[in-house]
Input
Amino acid sequence: MNIQILHLLQGAKNAVGLTVIIDVFRAFSVACYLFENGAESVLPVGRIDDAYRLKQENPGFILIGERYGRKQAGFQYGNSPDEIHQTDFTGKTIIHTTSAGTQGIVHASGADEIITGSLVNAKAIAQYILQRNPPQVSLVCMGIAGRLESEEDTFCAEYIESLLERKPYPVESAVEKLKETSGKRFFDPANRDWAPENDFYLCTDLNRFHFVMIAERTPEGLVRLRKTEDFTK
Output
């Protein structure tokens, strides 16, 4: 198994094989909480105009996401696990558009298979990949808006790689370091309305979930995330 770690939108475009699109803060952490709370499916959308159009065509769908970290006009929820982790989404379809994670899915056109990546289900991701045993794995760190590298996505990729290679990795200390680097914004009171402190802890709750989310193309040309069975219980 050949494993490569790639970065940002260009990394997504260059990804081949079984591809993990990683967005720890916060897109694919949010998606895990959505499924935990009963969501039937999540539709990752790249262009915000397409997200608005889907919502207009399907009023019953829930519109969630952000641009520049902030919830946009007409969105029912922002891209914040703290905002949604106690909400019942049973049977709901979610339209999810963000600045980084969902963009990576859209741009990974060369991948054989796409799954999402975050710290809250990293061990399940590794178990899934080991079960599939593909010749090529691409771990894509989407960073900030797909344009600037970020510590949390890079170390999530390194952590998944270590699990695949059965090597130790100081994941707990890496999480602590995030409080002073890319996670620092969650502890600034000025950001409380769009980046609450609890988002940090919900996004770094290591291996809380035991499922994987697979991105699949629908007959209508959309991308839909499908939740797998548990892998690590």
Observations:
- The longest strand covers residues 111-117.
- The chain has a mean pLDDT of 95.
- The beta strands are 2-7, 17-22, 41-44, 62-65, 93-97, 111-117, 136-141, 213-217, 223-227.
- Residues 23 and 81 are 13 Å apart (CA to CA).
